[in-house]
Amino acid sequence: xxELAIIIPAYKATFLRAALDSLATQxxxxxxxxxxxxxxxxxxxxxxxEYRDKIDFVYQRFETNLGGKDLVAQWERCIAMSQREPxxxxxxxxxxxxxxxxxxxxxxxKEIRDNYVVHFNIHQIDEKGNVEKTxxxxxxILSAKEYIDKKLFSPFLNSYVVEFVFPxxxxxxxxxxxxFDMAWGSDFITWIKFADICKGIYTIEKIDTxxxxxxxxxNISPTKxxxxxxxxxxxxxxxxxxxxxxxxxxGYEVPFKxxxxxxxxxxxxxxxxxxxxxxxxxxxYRKRIGFDFVSRIAYYLVRLKIQFHK
Length: 310
Known about the structure:
Blueprint: E1 4-10, H1 16-24, E2 31-37, H2 44-49, E3 57-61, H3 71-79, E4 87-90, E5 96-97, H4 101-107, H5 110-115, E6 117-120, E7 122-125, E8 131-133, E9 141-142, H6 144-152, E10 164-167, H7 168-174, H8 186-197, E11 201-204, E12 211-214, H9 226-249, H10 261-268, H11 275-288, H12 293-309
Helix pairs in contact: 6-8, 9-10, 9-11, 10-12
């Protein structure tokens, strides 16, 4: 059995060949690939079958679509396809990895692979695969607390799902990926959970070994529909409450700067919501996080902006 399981929860066809090409051209093929077709309406099997002689993989088509209502459950269903490989890499159907990624990960000392969440720096690419930008590089080692601070405060670190490899024992001990609606914030909180019970996050610093995360019209991030925004806001409150509780349990003070992002997100999107929405968000925020004097000011600023737009 190989040591590394690469997992692709698959639904979209647009960039699937690009993702599989990046795996087929890895300088080390010492990995097992598992592809979980989430009852896609596209002909994913036809694409996957093109790689039968190029990659060692297991393909399974699920009869019910799970990702549409519970994306994290789909991730976990696909991880469950894997065997007992000690390391897990949850990848995607539209991102790509540079050719030396697998080789570089497997060449790390076992002490690092077993006791850290391993992270690759990223390039952001467009729909044609061109590099749009290179986000700030991660420090070599981050604790869970340092990761929170560098995600929340300038200069901000970008992180997603696809550039992390983690030991199976960490996944099992923590209960796996934290589940929030639309998986909004699930990766952020999961890396906190994982980093907390091992030695932290270790970043591979080689400049020729990056994951290429694709920004495209198929991402959910740019979506501005009313219902999606409300779901994102609710999830943002949930994951903020999670890391606030984590910080308090660790004995850290949690000033307003840690919990301001809900109000900032609301303020930027007031033209898509109404006063009833803001009241609902206020009640949820009060219940899950608390409502101090500064939060009250932020709430009224958002209300004023909503009224201005109306």
